[in-house]
Design a protein that fits this description.
3 domains; five-stranded mixed beta sheet; 21 strands
Length: 411
């Protein structure tokens, strides 16, 4: 009788409490530290008791079922997995309904590492076959682009800071009808809210969208663009930029010449390139931080080691039409400005030469050249000295024209 009694005592705990058997299959290309927690049905995952932990290498399975006697009937258990540099994932949750149960838990998750903002930005530009130069004009309606900028002239300090401009309509360089690009594209990219907030005008299509961004979110942008591409200015009515500039209103031309004489380091550039589209539809998806425990059944995206999941019901779609993303110059036409200044000075020299007195020469020089120029001062200076100053400036203009040579193209 004693052996029989002993057997009964050994089996009794198993009969009363049962056991759960779990087998893990790691289907991820990453190492996972598997953790099992259990407790009452109402207990939050964070407060459950951890009763098991094991490290699984990528794409491996536990050799056999693992017996866990601590998990009782009508209790719940959760299978978590710690993935290095990713976080803690919840892979499985169940309530024990009978004393002996077997589970095979698949460790799988949809994870995508979001490229950093600069990489995403460059990827978008590459897909659009477009890289905007520095100091190019940003997002504008096509009508304004064609009437104001495209074909017009930009007067710049240090080749970059625009201090004056001759609009295309004033120069009579407007191209009609409007011509769009010939490419259609569908692309996707992620951006953090901080990047979009700081550089909204730099991201194609975003500045024209009614998008209110949150710095703590990640955004997925899905582009559908039609008739996009670069257009290059060509002569209007058969007239080159040289001819159009020569026919410019004399008052306008005199104004920019006097600006140049006040600072002969200024340069002039024709805004001869633009990038535009006829239609751009952008679908915007919002992604929010997942918190401390990541649900493996929900696709997640990682940015700077933080996990984000899609925020349902917040998608937005915006459509823009007839927009120019950038306008820029690849043609340096400073030679036209220098030539105009030279011709202007030559006419002044002729008028000064026929002046009857030093005072008359001074008045002519002040009236024609202005007070702030490369030839000042002219007050209390003899007629011959003024003529010499003007002659020196003409010589400098000639030397500069020789240095400039043919039209320079900025790449």
């Amino acid at each position: 009788m004693k052996p029989f009694f002993t057997v009964i005592v050994m089996i009794l705990p198993l009969f009363l409490f049962g056991q759960v058997k779990i087998k893990f299959e790691n289907n991820l290309d990453e190492q996972v530290v598997v953790k099992v927690r259990y407790g009452e049905l109402t207990t939050p995952i964070e407060s459950l008791t951890e009763i098991f932990s094991e490290t699984l290498e990528p794409n491996t399975s536990s050799p056999d079922y693992i017996k866990i006697k601590e998990i009782k009937k009508k209790k719940k258990f959760v299978v978590l997995g710690q993935i290095p540099k990713k976080g803690l994932f919840k892979f499985f949750e169940s309530t024990v309904t009978k004393r002996n149960q077997e589970y095979t838990v698949q460790l799988t998750a949809t994870m995508q590492e979001v490229p950093n903002d600069e990489i995403s930005y460059k990827s978008v530009l590459a897909n659009l076959s477009f890289t905007p130069p520095e100091n190019s004009r940003k997002v504008i309606h096509v009508d304004d682009a064609y009437n104001i900028y495209f074909g017009g002239l930009s007067i710049r300090k240090n080749d970059s800071v625009e201090i004056d401009r001759i609009d295309a309509s004033v120069l009579k360089a407007v191209k009609k009808p409007v011509q769009y690009g010939n490419l259609d594209k569908e692309i996707e990219s992620f951006f953090t809210g901080g990047f979009l907030s700081d550089t909204k005008g730099e991201v194609p299509g975003v500045a024209s969208a009614s998008l209110s961004v949150n710095n703590n979110k990640v955004y997925k942008l899905k582009y559908k663009l039609e008739d996009i591409g670069t257009r290059v200015w060509s002569p209007t009515n058969g007239k080159s930029i040289d001819e159009l500039f020569s026919e410019l209103n004399p008052i306008v031309k005199r104004g920019i010449v006097q600006r140049y004489l006040a600072d002969t380091t200024l340069t002039m550039h024709q805004l001869d390139h633009l990038y535009l589209f006829q239609s751009a539809t952008i679908q915007i998806e919002n992604y929010v931080s997942t918190g401390t425990i990541i649900d493996a059944s929900v696709p997640v995206f990682f940015s700077n080691n933080s996990a984000f999941k899609k925020e349902e019901g917040t998608d937005d779609t915006t459509t823009s039409t007839n927009m120019v993303l950038n306008i820029w110059s690849e043609k340096d036409v400073t030679y036209l400005l220098v030539q105009a200044a030279k011709e202007y000075l030559e006419k002044q020299r002729e008028l000064i030469a026929i002046a009857k007195s030093n005072k008359d020469a001074q008045k002519i020089a002040e009236a024609l050249i202005g007070e702030n120029n490369a030839i000042t001062p002219v007050k209390n200076v003899s007629k011959n000295a003024i003529l010499n100053n003007v002659g020196d400036e003409i010589n400098r203009a000639n030397e500069k024209l020789l240095r400039l040579g043919p039209i320079k193209i900025k790449l």
